[in-house]
Design brief:
With about 210 residues, the chain is mainly beta. The protein has one domain: Alpha-ketoglutarate-dependent dioxygenase AlkB-like (Jelly Rolls, Sandwich), CATH 2.60.120. The protein is built from 3 helices and 14 strands. Strands 2-3-12-9-14-7-6-5 form an 8-stranded antiparallel β-sheet. The protein has a 4-stranded antiparallel β-sheet with strand order 8-13-10-11. Strands 1-4 form a two-stranded antiparallel sheet. The relative contact order is 0.24. Bound molecules: 2-oxoglutaric acid and fe (ii) ion. Pfam families: 2OG-FeII_Oxy_2 (PF13532).
């Protein structure tokens, strides 16, 4: 599975570089102890990162049982445990920068990197909370860096209420924190608009998925 040779509107020759987090990332307080931090354009010159991520890094299709049918999950997945080298050095730098910034509040490091590839507007993730493991019962953080075509991340309180929308563009950072995984749900909706591929990289502490 390789999308690497699709024409890219991002310059792959640019050097990818992190920009500072402190004083620039803005916190959106949600209800019930949940919050979202957002910094558009955190990583500059990420064309080379997208190029690597759209290559053969071991993307696989997951399948789910839905009633009596076995259906493909509408996105490709690649999961990096903490001891696996990430496919682009700026991703390792990003995890370190997230640790430096959030460690006092989080109390532990970000360890794993779950990646999703949305090939086009038909790929999506349905409403859910990341509630496997400790995030089912404890506050935690999930930090997402987005590459490629912008897609909206929607959030809504569990049980109903107004939803919030964060547009996730190339190089943008969003961090879901506090009780967000338990008390809110999030999704990336399908779109009929023509959109190119998007890769989401989600950093999580150990034992959170
Ligand atoms: O694509 C995204 O940024 C979100 C992915 C997500 O929510 C998940 O994999 O749990
Ligand atoms: Fe999620």
């Amino acid at each position: 599975m390789s999308l690497a040779h699709q024409p890219s509107i991002w310059d792959v020759a640019d050097e990818a570089a992190l920009t500072p987090l402190a004083g620039r990332i803005s916190r959106h307080q949600l209800t019930r102890g949940a919050w979202v931090d957002h910094l558009p354009g955190w990583i500059e010159g990420s064309g080379s990162v997208l190029d690597v991520l759209l290559g053969d890094i071991g993307w696989r299709e997951d399948r789910r049982q839905m009633y009596d049918r076995d259906v493909a999950v509408p996105r490709l997945l690649r999961w990096y445990g903490g001891d696996e080298v990430l496919p682009h050095p700026v991703l390792t730098e990003a995890r370190t920068a997230l640790d430096d910034h959030y460690r006092p509040e989080l109390g532990e490091p970000f360890v794993t990197a779950g990646m999703c590839l949305y090939r086009d507007g038909r790929d999506s993730v349905a409403w859910h909370g990341d509630r496997i493991g400790r995030s089912r019962t404890e506050d935690t953080m999930v930090a997402i860096v987005s590459f490629g075509s912008p897609r909206p991340l929607l959030l809504r309180p569990v049980g109903g209420g107004d939803s919030q929308r964060f547009n996730l563009g190339h190089g943008d950072l969003v961090v879901m924190g506090g009780s967000c995984q338990r008390t809110w749900e999030h999704c990336i909706p399908k779109t009929t608009r023509t959109v190119g591929p998007r890769v989401s990289v989600q950093f999580r502490p150990r034992g959170v998925a």
